[in-house]
Write a structure and sequence with these properties.
The chain is an all-alpha fold. It has 13 helices and no strands.
């Protein structure tokens, strides 16, 4: 297993290098000048703009810029924001806790909805409850998240006036206000993910029930509850974990639309703002963060397979 993990970590390094090169080149070939975006509407002479480009190292050849940036990244230095002149690492770390909280709450909602609903649908397979839950999960998969977000704001904030529409308060400062502000974005992402997870888990449970070991367990007198929880559900969780890991990667890398609608200062909103401002170091930092998360989650999911299914062997 250690050899497998070492090989995966080596592959992660190669993928990160490839991602770094791609994002670095793409950011340089996109139209627009980050220095012009930084000065905005101010009347600045061409010589001043040239001096700013020189101080930022943007006048160097592209390969030289990449090697310098890659060397800094290897030492944990993601550069300095062009607009705020703050270290990119510090900017990222100030936005990551918001995204982590939103992702954790959303995944918790998705799992707490998906597992019982899928098991309930399988228990009543072919009946009206199964059809209703299946239709509901299909709506969850196909319903646009931003429409659900706007609908929640209209209902919960404008009509019922139960919750504030937008904003963020740290749980350290005020836990009650934090939870009030996180309810709607959590429901937006959690219910959307729950639709996909419910459909997947329902299909896997139905497939597992048809296997011979279920008939054997019934013949030995095991209850349906024990069969579903101890045997069927555990085996069905292997593909479920794969999709859950992908959903976690999407949420942890920043739910761009949801964070923007609810004005949450997370990684997704940070990416949007700095793409508009052409802040190249921050954009590169966000992309690297997202890539590292995806690779780490995929590795974690592969290792979890061995816990869920003892037959899995790592070569």
């Amino acid at each position: 297993m250690l050899r497998y993990v070492a090989a995966r970590l080596a592959a992660m390094v190669l993928v990160m290098l490839l991602v770094s090169a791609c994002v670095f080149v793409l950011m340089r070939v996109l139209p627009g000048d980050p220095v012009v975006a930084m000065v905005g509407m101010m009347d600045v002479s061409a010589s001043t703009l040239a001096g700013m480009r020189h101080s930022l190292g943007l006048d160097r050849p592209l390969p030289v810029q990449f090697v310098v940036w890659l060397g800094n990244v290897a030492h944990g230095n993601l550069g300095v924001s062009i607009r705020s002149r703050e270290p990119v690492t510090g900017v990222l770390l100030s936005h990551v806790p918001v995204t982590l909280e939103l992702a954790a709450l959303s995944l918790a909602v998705a799992v707490m909805v998906a597992i019982p609903f899928a098991m309930l649908a399988v228990r009543h397979h072919g009946r009206w409850l199964d059809r209703m839950l299946t239709a509901g999960s299909l709506v969850g998969v196909s319903f646009p998240g931003f429409v659900l977000a706007l609908g929640l704001i209209y209902l919960m904030s404008l009509r019922l006036r139960w919750l504030p529409p937008t904003g963020y308060v740290s749980p350290v400062d005020d836990l009650a206000d934090n939870l009030k502000l996180m309810i709607m974005p959590t429901l937006t992402l959690g219910l959307t993910s729950a639709g996909l997870l419910t459909r997947l888990l329902r299909g896997q449970l139905l497939e597992e029930i048809s296997h011979g070991y279920v008939r054997t367990a019934r013949a030995k007198g095991a209850t349906e509850r024990a069969i579903m929880v101890s045997h069927v559900l555990r085996n069905a969780l292997v593909p479920f974990t794969t999709v859950l890991g992908n959903e976690a990667g999407v949420l942890l890398s920043g739910a761009v639309i949801t964070e923007t609608i609810f004005a949450l200062p997370g990684v997704g909103r940070l990416a949007v703002e700095n793409v508009l401002n052409r802040d190249l170091p921050v954009i590169q930092g966000v992309v690297l963060w997202s890539a590292l998360l995806y690779l780490s989650i995929n590795l974690a999911v592969d290792l979890i397979y061995g816990v869920l299914d003892p037959r899995v062997r790592y070569g």
